[in-house]
Amino acid sequence: MSIITIERKVLEKNDELAAQLRNEFKKNKLFVINIVSSPGSGKTSILEKTIEKLKGKINLAVIEGDVQTDLDAKRVEKYNVPVVQIVTNGGCHLDAKLVKDALDSINLSDISFLVIENVGNLVCPAGYDLGEDYKIVVLSTTEGDDKPLKYPKMFINSSILIINKVDLLPYVNCNIKELRDNALMINPDLKVFETSATTGAGIDDWCEWILANIKK
Amino acid sequence: MHELSVAQSIVEIIKENVPEQDYGKVNAVLLEVGEFSGIIADSLQFCFDAVKLETPFKKARMEIKKVPFVLYCNLCKVETTNSNGIRMCDKCGGFDNSIVSGTEMRVTEVELD
Ligand SMILES: Nc1nc2c(ncn2[C@@H]2O[C@H](COP(=O)(O)OP(=O)(O)OP(=O)(O)O)[C@@H](O)[C@H]2O)c(=O)[nH]1
Ligand SMILES: [Mg+2]
Ligand SMILES: [Zn+2]
């Protein structure tokens, strides 16, 4: 009998590819975010509002990840920004290889901001680095204030939390202070925004944060 | 989470680290899986046993060593833990700490005949 010692991280392939992407992004002075959440928290809605605000100020492109359909890409396309839809056909997360392939159809030197909207899933996308500058987790008030405790990994691995659908606070059983506290307990370094994609509340602050991060 | 795709990644890692002529000799693959890695050991085992039938590693066992969640608390100045996988010291309730182990997922060894 013989033993081969390996010592390899199981997701090392993805991490290596993500590091290559990060390099590529850096070379092109691109600011890149990876938006994650459970299905329906409002990722695309926030993105639509964000594009409206930032149009004319910066050039951006979008990669949409969904299990099926190009519905989200169609929504973004209306704003005349370059968008690539990745359909995972059942896959529960985007990985660095899928993003690399999608980049073939985007001219990176034309843009300064790239948004990757991940597959709606509060578990799996946490483990996959896509080469982004920041992972942004969106949690909507209708999902309940206990979610950071129940899905800690996503909140540990994210840098920014957007609490969306604050317009619904009067109608839902969600204590926003509790939600914040729970999230900050999981990850004290989280920066928190509160938004409503419906009323536009909080979108200005969010867009200012983006503009401050665009690389000169 | 996605144990099936993880099992496939493990097959790839074995392929890359074992000379092709020895594929048939692979007896076992050893893994270290953190308590809060997001992977369910039993489910990963089940997926690997299904996936391996499509590979040259049909007789390979998967042995999983579970790694406990350990924090180093900068306030208590000792290694502690948190039973929920949160970065809060169970001893003092503080948040000033770093993760020592318990979130990893590593292939450590392959055993051949
Ligand atoms: N009231 C309210 N509804 C919202 C808000 N943001 C989004 N919605 C609604 O929530 C639903 C889901 O929004 P989407 O933007 O499609 O959510 P998503 O996260 O992109 O969904 P997936 O990509 O399918 O995971 C839609 O009906 C939106 O109109 C908000 O701030 N307030
Ligand atoms: Mg969407
Ligand atoms: Zn302590």
Structure notes:
The complex is a heterodimer of chains A (216) and B (113). Chain A is of the alpha/beta class and 216 residues long. Chain A has a single domain (2-214), classed as 3-Layer(aba) Sandwich (Rossmann fold). In chain A, 35% of the residues lie in helices and 22% in strands. Chain A has helices at residues 12-27, 43-54, 71-77, 96-103, 147-150, 152-157, 176-186, 203-213, and strands at 2-9, 31-36, 60-66, 83-87, 113-117, 134-140, 160-164, 191-194. In chain A, strands 4-3-5-2-6-7-8 form a seven-stranded parallel sheet, with helices on both faces. In chain A, helix 3 (71-77) links the parallel strand 3 and strand 4 (83-87). In chain A, helix 2 packs across helix 8. The radius of gyration of chain A is 17 Å and the shape is globular. The termini of chain A are far apart. With 113 residues, chain B is an alpha+beta fold. Chain B has a domain at 3-67 and 101-112: hypothetical protein PF0899 fold. Helix content of chain B is 23%, strand content 32%. A three-stranded mixed sheet of chain B has the order 2-1-6, covered by helices on one side. In chain B, helix 1 packs across helix 2. The interface between A and B is medium-sized, with 28 and 30 residues. Strand 1 (2-9) of chain A pairs antiparallel with strand 6 (105-112) of chain B. The structure holds guanosine-5'-triphosphate, magnesium ion and zinc ion.
Q: Could you list some keywords that capture this structure?
A:
heterodimer; A: 216 residues; alpha/beta; Rossmann fold; 7-stranded parallel sheet; 8 helices; 35% helix; 22% strand; B: 113 residues; alpha+beta; hypothetical protein PF0899 fold; 3-stranded mixed sheet; 3-stranded antiparallel sheet; 2 helices; 6 strands; 23% helix; elongated; binds guanosine-5'-triphosphate; binds magnesium ion; binds zinc ion
